[in-house]
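Worked example 4.2. Below are the chains of a multi-component assembly; read each line carefully before continuing.
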Amino acid sequence: MDKNPIEATEFYDFLTGKAYTALSRRLQKNLREAGIEITSEQWSILYALWEEEGLTQQELAQRTFRDKTAITRLIDNLVRRTLVIRVTDDSDRRTNLIYLTKSGRHLKEKCMHQANKTLAEALHNVDAAHTQTAKETLRQVYINLK
Amino acid sequence: MDKNPIEATEFYDFLTGKAYTALSRRLQKNLREAGIEITSEQWSILYALWEEEGLTQQELAQRTFRDKTAITRLIDNLVRRTLVIRVTDDSDRRTNLIYLTKSGRHLKEKCMHQANKTLAEALHNVDAAHTQTAKETLRQVYINLK
DNA sequence: TTTATATAGTTGTATATGCAACCATCAAAA
DNA sequence: TTTTGATGGTTGCATATACAACTATATAAA
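Applying the procedure described above to all four chains together yields the following structure tokens:
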């Protein structure tokens, strides 16, 4: 567990989450400036639903790596903003299937534009090869820890 | 702002913070299993103080990239756990200087061991060169967005 | 059929966070 | 010296989160 102390020693910033905090805050700022009043966390739920509608809350929890209780309340808030609806699954009345409303679906283009803008701002002065490596590394970290 | 859509397109997971969430959760789990009942956020404050005591709350806010109100309440919780104390600066009575208590100082070794363990688990199967690149990339992201 | 077990989701509680508004203190200008 | 503006910190509020305990439903075992 102390195999690579040299590399790890300078990597505590990763543990403090500074880069992710900065990224998340910038996304929210960009969304707000585009007139979209959702949080970055709500964005991540919508992003999953833009990829595939009708997911259960469990599936959303897995895809966004959150506790299912966090999903309950995120969906609560998205329902209140009339961006998604809960539909009880007839074949298993325990589960809710989450669908986008027309407004929720309509938001996709504008939101993804802001998401792309945010990533471009974040990765300014980072060459493509390094971006690719960082992407793979974060992916491996997730696989290691999930 | 849409200069590198290809690289960005597969990088939305970075925006959702999955890797950081996984990392933060694992750190807290490792600390708990070592009998240390602090959150990963509290760890990041203590980490800054282990590097340098007597920081102001503003300085802590900058170093951990958090809103100063978040620092107020993190310090509240750390004071309640008797890990740090607030000392009013005599030369400027607006500012609090934050010092570790004996318990807070004592925690360093055990906590840093768990932090190193967490990073090692996270970076398992990631070679040193990639770790280095990821580190630099996250650093650049932070610089771009801060 | 009844019982036991597993799964999907919700609620209570404690913690964390950003933003806006606020108070206290300091420093510079008038 | 008084006023003005800047800075450090706190509080109110809404949101997000994990964990534990709970309800409701479904499935498997007896």
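Take a moment to check your reading of the output against the notes. The two ends of chain A are 18 Å apart (CA to CA). The beta strands of chain A are 55-56, 84-88, 96-100.
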